[in-house]
């Protein structure tokens, strides 16, 4: 399916990457990126793969092109002596394929003036920049770095007089405060800029370099933090000469490892026992620095150090300060390298609560599926919100701001001992088709603690060999849309009973179908309490409207009242559709009884008793039925009844001559307990053992058994009380005694 749209771009639209989704009457598309340039677009015109016949384009143009396999594209521009001539390419950032571009600026004699493959700032994308040495024509060469390419290897090439710095210093500033920055690595004169930072912290903020009416095509990263900056003052290679900043932590220390072997020191005052987190931002702000971080105490001894951390070349430590007084931070490069653009930012903060929320991946290595919420009119869709938290505990609450009119998010309080919980978005039947980017928030249930977190999601746009991520982008809001009604709804009944630990329960699921819609519906539970399990999916067959969704709870299932939603997915006339039930309570409770199965033994073809000890955990009314399962073939028993007073339970075991002599270790009991007209089910014992023995061999020359004498009829005596069954030890002793008697009678030792 293909859709075409005309996009109006405002004159003051921000340059660079914009996130885009297509919303239709039936759904929301995966995220794509859309790039805005300061220059008019031109289209590549083939053939332009010969240096002698390049495509001529005006200076200050953005060219849309494609590199085919082994293709080389040439563009010719005219510049004057002393002019800045820069070229920057968007290739892998367009997220079409794994396209690793190479660009070069050449003169008319084909002499390479500047060239680039990968760059720390743009990763696989790159830029080149020169000061034109003379009036005349210059060539821009574009190709795949390995001379590959294909129909998906599209690019946008910016050619113009714009500045292109490789770094910015400082690489961050305090929220709500103006920060003066200088740019590093740009050709030509590039004045300092005073940047008004956002009022709120933003780790993904960026600054565009500007000069002579032109702007860099893409921003240099600039972290906006809630605490003040400290800028390095050279020389700072000796920690004893570095001044202590006037402010206390939290602080952001900013520096440059500007030459090979450079070492930078910073100083701060700390208190004994204070726990702090120190992190170097270098690769995360697109610096070539591979940082090594060390924190030292007032005595000059190292407290802790770190090179790489969390899969990144950036460093971080969490330390407890050993004493009052001056403490030291040391930064250097892992390979002792340095350069003018080896910029870094060290954020040192006391340990504080941190909280964020996101939707977990539906599949491994898939960051797009189920990451948007199309809500049909008069219907619902469920998702799971996961949280990351540190340095605090307690329950959490979810909320959503700026939802489309007619949509409500239903969420209950998340307990402190879990990290994910279901929420349901519901649209009224009257809701108009609309969409919004929604700010989903998570907060501590105790408002006085003032612990808040926001939604975030990283979309992996280009994945390469070994599942390496070559390009990703971040979003901080959730796409929610009202869509056309669907031909079915999902409902689940609130279970009339709890599910017991070591028990099971059938969740009643119904599909409310429109007339004429009878397609099969795939059902799944997106979330279950810890210890509760189910099939990954079950199918509600074509034409059916009700089904049981079996749940089981293990012995450590989380006790409490939880909330479930069931997703239903079916093919409709407009394609696959997913809806959900409302949130429905599920209670998980402790079992009522424990049962211990005593070991028992019988002979093949004989009968015997199996004793069970009953431990009452909670009282129940009436009689519960206990079934013994796992018996070996050709043996059987009958269900027994117990009450809340029962302490022992006997199962009569009957075997046939076909039973095989062996020890069975798979016996278990299942109990059905009456509760308000319903039955609760649980298992109460497992691993019980029953040994089946062969009968003893007949004795040699044994005298015939005497015939039985007739017995005079007497008045029937009262039946004696049943004897307590023999214990396993008593049975073993009796068997041994009988076998000894047999051997004595046969004259064998």
Describe the structure in your own words.
With 749 residues, this protein is mainly β. Strands 31, 32, 33, 34, 35, 36, 37, 38 and 41 form a nine-stranded mixed beta sheet that branches. The model has no long low-confidence stretch (mean pLDDT 93).
Q: Short description, anyone?
A:
It contains one helix and 61 strands. The chain is mainly β.
Task: Summarize the topology.
Layout lengths: L15 E5 L11 E5 L4 E3 L11 E2 L4 E6 L5 E8 L4 E7 L10 E6 L5 E5 L10 E5 L4 E9 L9 E7 L6 E3 L2 E3 L3 E7 L8 E4 L9 E2 L2 E2 L2 E2 L4 E2 L1 E3 L3 E3 L19 E6 L7 E7 L4 E7 L9 E6 L5 E5 L9 E5 L4 E9 L9 E8 L3 E5 L14 E4 L3 E11 L5 E6 L5 E4 L9 E8 L7 E10 L7 E4 L1 E7 L5 E7 L2 E6 L4 E5 L6 E2 L2 E11 L7 E4 L7 E2 L4 E3 L5 E8 L6 E5 L2 E6 L2 E6 L3 E6 L3 E5 L2 E4 L3 E10 L7 E6 L5 E2 L3 E3 L5 E8 L6 E14 L2 E16 L34 H18 L4
Parallel strand pairs: 3-5, 4-6, 14-21, 22-23, 31-38, 32-41, 43-52, 54-61
Antiparallel strand pairs: 1-2, 5-12, 6-11, 7-10, 7-12, 8-9, 8-11, 13-15, 15-16, 17-20, 18-19, 23-30, 24-29, 25-28, 25-30, 26-27, 26-29, 31-33, 33-36, 34-37, 35-36, 37-38, 37-41, 39-40, 42-44, 44-48, 44-61, 45-47, 45-50, 46-48, 49-52, 50-51, 53-55, 55-59, 56-58, 56-60, 57-59, 60-61
């Amino acid at each position: 399916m293909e859709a075409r749209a005309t996009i109006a771009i405002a004159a003051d639209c921000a340059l660079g990457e914009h996130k885009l989704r297509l919303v239709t009457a039936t759904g929301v598309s995966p995220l794509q990126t859309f790039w805005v340039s300061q220059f008019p677009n031109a289209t590549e015109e083939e053939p332009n793969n010969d240096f002698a016949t390049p495509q001529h384009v005006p200076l200050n143009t953005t060219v849309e092109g494609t590199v085919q396999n082994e293709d080389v594209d040439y563009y010719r521009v005219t510049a004057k002596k002393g002019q800045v001539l820069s070229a920057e390419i968007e290739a892998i950032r367009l997220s079409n394929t794994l396209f690793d571009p190479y660009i070069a600026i050449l003169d008319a004699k084909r002499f390479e003036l500047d060239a680039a493959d990968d760059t720390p700032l743009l990763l696989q994308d790159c830029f080149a920049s020169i000061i034109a040495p003379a009036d005349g024509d210059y060539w821009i060469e574009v190709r795949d770095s390995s001379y590959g390419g294909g129909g998906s290897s599209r690019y946008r090439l910016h050619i113009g007089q714009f500045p292109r710095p490789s770094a910015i210093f400082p690489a961050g500033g305090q929220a709500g405060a103006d920060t003066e920055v200088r740019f590093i690595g740009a050709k030509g004169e590039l004045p300092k800029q005073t940047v008004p930072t956002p009022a709120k912290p933003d780790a993904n903020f960026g600054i565009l370099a500007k000069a002579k009416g032109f702007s860099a095509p893409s921003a240099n990263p600039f972290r906006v933090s809630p605490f003040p900056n400290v800028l390095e003052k050279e020389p700072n290679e000796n920690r004893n000469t570095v001044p202590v900043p006037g402010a206390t932590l939290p602080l952001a220390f900013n520096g440059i490892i500007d030459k090979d072997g450079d070492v930078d020191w910073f100083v701060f005052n700390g208190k004994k026992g204070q726990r702090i987190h120190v992190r170097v931002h270098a690769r995360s702000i697109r610096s070539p620095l591979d940082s090594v971080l060390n924190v030292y105490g007032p005595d000059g001894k190292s407290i802790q150090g770190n090179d790489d951390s969390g899969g990144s070349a950036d460093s971080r430590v969490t330390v407890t300060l050993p004493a009052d007084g001056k403490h030291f931070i040391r930064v250097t490069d892992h390979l002792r390298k340095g350069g003018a653009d080896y910029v870094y930012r060290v954020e040192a903060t006391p340990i504080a609560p941190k909280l964020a929320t996101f939707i977990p991946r539906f599949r491994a290595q898939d960051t797009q599926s189920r990451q948007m919420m199309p809500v049909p009119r008069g219907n619902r869709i469920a998702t799971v919100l996961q949280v990351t938290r540190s340095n605090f505990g307690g329950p959490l609450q979810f909320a959503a701001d700026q939802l489309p009119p007619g949509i409500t998010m239903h969420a209950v309080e998340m307990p402190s001992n879990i990290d994910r919980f279901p929420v349901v978005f519901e649209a009224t039947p009257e809701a108009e088709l609309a969409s919004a980017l929604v700010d989903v928030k998570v907060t501590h249930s105790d408002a006085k603690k003032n612990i808040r977190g926001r939604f975030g999601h990283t979309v992996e746009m280009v994945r390469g060999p070994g599942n390496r991520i070559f390009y990703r982008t971040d979003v901080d809001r959730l796409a929610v849309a009202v869509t056309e009604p669907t031909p079915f709804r999902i409902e689940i009944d609130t279970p009339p009973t709890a599910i017991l630990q070591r028990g099971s329960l059938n969740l009643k699921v119904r599909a409310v179908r429109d007339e004429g819609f009878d397609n099969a519906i795939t059902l799944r539970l997106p979330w279950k309490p810890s210890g509760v399990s189910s099939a990954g999916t079950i199918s509600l067959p074509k034409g059916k409207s009700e089904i049981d969704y079996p749940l089981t709870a293990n012995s450590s299932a989380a006790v409490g009242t939880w909330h479930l939603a069931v997703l239903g997915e079916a093919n409709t006339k407009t394609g696959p559709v997913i809806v959900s039930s409302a949130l429905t309570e599920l209670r998980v409770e402790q079992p009522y009884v424990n049962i211990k199965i005593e070991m028992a033994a019988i002979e093949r073809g004989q009968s015997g008793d199996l004793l069970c000890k009953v431990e009452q955990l909670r009282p129940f009314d009436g009689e519960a039925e206990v079934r013994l399962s796992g018996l070996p073939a050709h043996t059987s028993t009958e269900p027994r009844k117990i009450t809340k007073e029962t302490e022992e339970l006997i199962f009569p075991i009957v075997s046939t001559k076909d039973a095989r002599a062996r020890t069975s270790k798979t016996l278990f009991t299942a109990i059905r307990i009456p509760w308000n007209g319903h039955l609760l089910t649980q298992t109460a014992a497992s691993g019980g053992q029953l040994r089946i023995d062969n009968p003893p061999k007949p004795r040699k020359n044994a005298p015939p058994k005497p015939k039985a004498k007739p017995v005079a009829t007497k008045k029937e005596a009262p039946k004696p009380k049943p004897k307590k069954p023999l214990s396993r030890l008593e049975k073993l002793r009796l068997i041994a005694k009988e076998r000894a008697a047999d051997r004595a009678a046969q004259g064998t030792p």
